[in-house]
Amino acid sequence: MTGLPQDKTAEPRSISSSKLAVLRKHPIFCDLDPEALDQLCRYAKHAMLKRGATIFSKGDPGNSLVAVISGTVKISVSSAEGRSAILNLIGAGETFGEVAVLDGQARTADATAHTNCEIFLIDRREFLPFVRSQPALAMKFIELLCMRLRWTSDQVEQVILQDLPGRLASALIRLTEKHKLAPKGRMIAITQQEISEMVGMTRESINKQLRIWAMRNWVRLEHGAIVVLESGPLQALAEAGTEND
After folding, report:
1. Pick the residue with more confidence: 146 or 152?
2. How many Å apart are CA 57 and CA 59, to the nearest integer?
3. Where a domain ends, among 156, 177, 208?
4. 35 shares its domain with 149
5. Sign of the CA dihedral 204, 206, 212, 216?
6. Torsions phi, psi of 52, nearest 5?
């Protein structure tokens, strides 16, 4: 991760002030006392990334925790044959890379800037002693790991037990809930190819199913996005796991 560009355009004082303001609003770090927040601010390295930039690759050493300030990061894996699976989309206010940072093992997936992103990186050598000194922060990361485990369990359950409509409905509902999208105009910035990589089906199958739902006015298809118009039928389908009609 050493090759990531870092913001060197501002004066050190303004960067520090900006970091402090951003970290103070970050859900993981917002409850830290002012002294601890100042210390964390000194550790955080700022980076601006263009869409498609590699943050780390599977197998890399887990030497940094990453906090997303703006934009979205894609967590994915790929096979030797070129097939890809999207495991998660990490948005503003979230962190990622904590598993390898905490256990000292290699990265388990690839992390790529899904959009233009602003991130902070905190080196493992500084982060681990800091967490040990902040029990409340340690508890937040335990909760985060539990949430990620539940997310993974849900994904495995969907792949094994649900048919395509159930899987796709579950993915759309999960994305709207995860990013706290408004009930009306729930636009999910994701392509049909990307959502096919999330649910493990072909793009053609995804397109066919989405067009059926578009005819029912459940969704609207836009370039590079899916707008959820009626979440109720999708929620029912996600809970049932299969489409009967």
Report:
1. 146
2. 6
3. 156
4. yes
5. negative
6. 95, -10
Question: Is the pLDDT assigned to residue 180 strictly greater than 60?
Answer: no
Domain co-membership, 142 together with 167: no
Residue 19's pLDDT band, with cuts at 50, 70 and 90, is: confident
Q: What CA–CA distance (Å, rounded) separates 118 from 120?
A: 7
CATH number at residue 99: 2.60.120.10
The separation between the first and the last C-alpha atoms of the chain, rounded to the nearest angstrom, is 49
- H or E segment to which residue 221 belongs: strand 219-222
**Domain count along the chain:** 2
Token pair listed for 141: 């990361």
- The answer to the question of residue 57 being in a domain is yes
Say what the alpha-carbon torsion angle 115, 156, 147, 113 is, to the nearest 10 degrees.
Answer: -10
Residue 143 belongs to domain spanning:
12-156
Closest to 70 measured CA to CA, from 47, 92, 94, 48: 92
**Do 55 and 176 reside in the same domain of the chain?**
no
At 8, the pLDDT band (50, 70, 90 cuts) reads very low
CATH number of the domain to which 167 belongs? 1.10.10.10
Phi/psi region, residue 166 (left: phi>0; alpha: psi -120 to 50; beta: rest), is alpha
What is the pLDDT confidence band of residue 112, given thresholds at 50, 70 and 90?
very high
Query: β-pairing, 110-113 with 73-78?
Result: antiparallel
Q: Is 1 domain-assigned?
A: no
Q: Is the pLDDT of residue 11 over 50?
A: no
Cross-strand bridge partners of residue 120: 46, 67
